[in-house]
Amino acid sequence: MESAWSMQAISQISKVERDATEIVLDVEARRALREEKSRPIAESFFEWLESLRDTMLPRSPLAKAVGYALNQREALLSFLKDGRLKLDNNRAERSLRQVAVGRKNWLFAGSAKGARRAAVLYTLVVSCKELGINPFD
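Given the sequence above, the corresponding structure tokens read:
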């Protein structure tokens, strides 16, 4: 049942983010909402992880996962300090998906110079798309 509690905690934090998005909060208001509602949930989550650590075999996969999460605590909680930060990295993952999909197509760029030119152009086009700029302009 403890795993169900952890999923519920993550779901509650996600709900706070959805609520903040629905009511269109500015950066400071989003940070304050996170501080008020998400921080207690997140702190409870990490306290739970701390209590779990002592009950597991040190080299088990679950103990390694718990240790990793505890070692990344500061980074995982950074969204609480800055309302501009997203809770997830979905946007970056979507951008990288384009690279993974095209990887086979780019194996044969013709030459090292051709590969470099392709990388420069790809970076320029994707950056323009992210900024809402027409790359042809």
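Helices lie at 2-22, 27-53, 61-71, 73-76, 90-102, 112-131. Try to locate this feature in the token string yourself.
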